[in-house]
Amino acid sequence: MTEEVLLFLMPLWFINTLLNIFHFIPILKKIDKPLDFDSKFIDHNRILGDSTTLIGLPVALSGGLAASLIINKTLIYGIILGASCYLGHACGSFIKRRLNIPDGKYLPFVDHLNYVYFCGTLLLILDYIKPTIFLYALLLNSIAHPILCFLGYKVGLRKNMV
Fold first, then answer.
1. 3-state secondary structure of 88
2. What is the full DSSP assignment across 117-160?
3. SS3 46
4. Are 34 and 50 in contact, with CB atoms under 8 Å apart?
5. Which of 71-85, 97-111, 135-149 has the highest mean pLDDT?
6. 40 pairs with which residues across the strands?
7. Sign (positive/negative) of CA torsion 148, 152, 158, 160?
8. Residue 79, pLDDT score
């Protein structure tokens, strides 16, 4: 069971880490643009904010494909991982904007879990994982991800601790 939980979470952590690392590459930072192009929603707040970007999607997809090869899964599985990880982050950004929570501020049950909710739900629907794997992954991620984010902050890969 532990192996299955880690085989589900580790590719997501890998993708998430890639997204954080690519954010610090100067040339990419110059050419990257927010996915919402600074557009506002009907509540007059940004749709997604600055952290969901155009370059983020190919980075997430590439990370998903690489992870699928490493863990010996199909390329379709990798595309699902990358796309759902990215879309989960986008959904979390959308929710935070609706609640007027600025970039960098922590929102419990959304930050650190949004990509696991989205990917896990999709993989459950497609029958790639069992419900118990999903539940254990949510529990483990809610403990491990904040610790990993803190470490990323300490080594300069993140702007914020959470």
1. helix
2. HHHHHHHHHTTSS-HHHHHHHHHHHHHHHHHHHHHHHHTTS-SS
3. strand
4. yes
5. 71-85
6. 46
7. positive
8. 96
